[in-house]
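Re: the request from the purification team.
They wanted to know what the chain is likely to look like in 3D before they choose a buffer screen. I agreed to run a prediction and write the result into the notebook, where they can find it.
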Amino acid sequence: MRFRTIVLALAALPMVLGGCGGMVTPTASSSGSAPASPAMPWVIVATGSATPSPTPSISLSLPASGLPWTSMPAASACAIAWPENEQVLIPMIVTPAKASLKVQWPAWYGPDYRVAAVDQRLVSGTQPPPTWVSVTAGTGCTVTATLTGLISGNPYIVWLDAPNTPRNLDGSRSLYSGKSGVVTPL
């Protein structure tokens, strides 16, 4: 009985030492190719030919009125150096005056705009909604509006809205299309 146990242990030894796969013996495949080798990798990498990289195509569809480089007239009166601001769509120039603010912006986004001076003083409770002033653009390159009735020395931010500006992907629009920094009327 002891001899039988030793023989069984010796017979199982190649499987224990060889891992889960046991012993691999070369055999001829049905396709007639060379026999498989025990050293053959599990993943076979074949060389091939390179393919060209795809060329990305970008398509922007903005309304014609939203393209400042095509809709802005080339007249010398339109050559205003508008301030650049990546956070707003429409740039503007705000000039403080006595209890008022003069606001100028390019007439790039259609004939209808609205502008508001938003008071920046701290308010207890709910912030009052901005008072919007409707402005219709003329035939010139710029639109100008004067916001009156402001408190001299108080900080304001001017918001500019153009209803013809592009919408977000979900169809919504920002509350404003242009925004100034903090300005104070004289």
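For the purification team: Residues 58-76 have pLDDT under 50 and may be disordered.
Please add any questions underneath this entry.
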